[in-house]
Amino acid sequence: MPISYVAKRFGMFLLVVWAAATINFFIPRLGGQNPARAAMLRQAAAGGAVQTGMEEMVAEYNKKFGLDKPLWEQYLTYIGDAAHFDFNYSIANYPSTVLDMIGQGLPWTLGLLTTTILISWFIGGLLGAFMAWPRSPKFLQFLMPPLLSLNAIPFFLLGLLLVYVFAFRFKWFPLSGGYTAGSFPGWNLDFARNVLNHAVLPALSIILVSIGGWALGMRAMMVTTHGEDYVTYADAKGLRGRTIFLRYLIRPSLLPQTTALALALGQLISGALLVEVIFSYPGIGTVLFNAIRGSDYYLIQGIVFILIVSIGLATFVLDLIYPLLDPRITYQRN
Predict the structure, then answer these.
(1) Cα gap 319→234, rounded to integer Å
(2) Distance (Å) of CA 170 to CA 33, 124, 164, 166, 292
(3) 146, 231, 273, 319 from 121: Cα distances, Å
(4) How confident is the model at residue 37 (pLDDT cuts 50, 70, 90)?
(5) pLDDT higher at 36 or 96
């Protein structure tokens, strides 16, 4: 692969990250709300009385977080700090830093969404491939309508239905949370079983919705690939059906599926925000939701910036490995 192409793609990656980070800086400020004042008002409401000297406290917090500076100076500070992955303190959860807040929720989101995305991608892709293969069992054709029906349901809505049926009515699973209240997190079998029990319903809501989309995409690619001349030639040569299926149909069809998988993994941080919220799951989606509610500029900026970098990095890596996935793709000039 030419070094010039890698350098060009890396430059595009940096440009996209900068542009998206700039938008990420300005959007939370469009509402015009002062996050320090909002935090003080919430504390006052929780205490049942208006605190004296609130304006002085707001001014001190503005100075502490740099919100009293001109917007252009805040922007330059933000770009410099973001380049070092330093996102300041969380305004709503001071003195916790943004990285501390992200570090608390990120393992939960990575564990839940990485597992569910990979499972749904594998099962959906496999089902879609067999549905398009003429020699597959006929009963597989009847799976597509229910899968597509589930795919049309939002994650959170299916999650609410699962909660009502399996948690509220049958009481097979917990209603919410990442683990039982009062439990002590630790690396032991009992706590792992506890976490797994709480993760079943959120995981099912994502997997059941996603399988249909992956299956439909894979089936469409398989049908398209099946009409190619090289597949007809392979069949005419008398190659075994399994060889044609695996080498001549599956492999070319995996390219767009792999692209979609990489982008889905790149969006892990915000992938199922509402699913985490309705299940009170302690992941990064819940952290982002609470940050938006509390106008916590720095926490919002930190989470979204990491999301931007992860998606951009996933796209950049995909560009580099495309030739390995499909020999027909090359970046060498003739």
Answers:
(1) 29
(2) 44, 28, 9, 5, 34
(3) 17, 25, 19, 20
(4) low
(5) 96
Q: Could you tell me if 102 and 303 are in contact, meaning their C-beta atoms sit under 8 angstroms apart?
A: yes
Closest CA to 268 of 146, 109, 148: 109
**How many Å apart are CA 155 and CA 102, to the nearest integer?**
23
What is d(CA 158, CA 205) in angstroms, rounded to the nearest whole number?
Answer: 6
Secondary element (H or E) of residue 20: helix 3-26
Q: Which two tokens stand for residue 259?
A: 């692209």
Q: Please state the domain extents for the chain.
A: 1-92+297-334, 103-293
CATH code linked to domain 103-293: 1.10.3720.10
- Cα–Cα distance between 121 and 124 in angstroms, integer? 5
Is residue 101 classed as helix, strand or coil in its secondary structure? Answer: helix
- According to DSSP, residue 139 is labeled G
Per-residue pLDDT band at 224 (split at 50, 70, 90): confident
The tokens describing 23, both together, are 């938008």
User: How many Cβ atoms sit within 10 Å of the Cβ of residue 83?
Assistant: 11
Q: What's the Cα-to-Cα distance from 325 to each of 116, 132, 228, rounded to whole Å?
A: 23, 21, 18
Q: What is the pLDDT of residues 305-319, one digit of tens each?
A: 888 888 778 777 777
Closest among 62, 166, 33, 110 to 284, alpha carbons compared: 110
Task: Give me the amino acid identity at 285.
Answer: G
| Proportion of the chain above pLDDT 70, given as a percent | 84
Residue 247 tokens, joined: 């080498």
The per-residue pLDDT of the chain, averaged, comes to 78
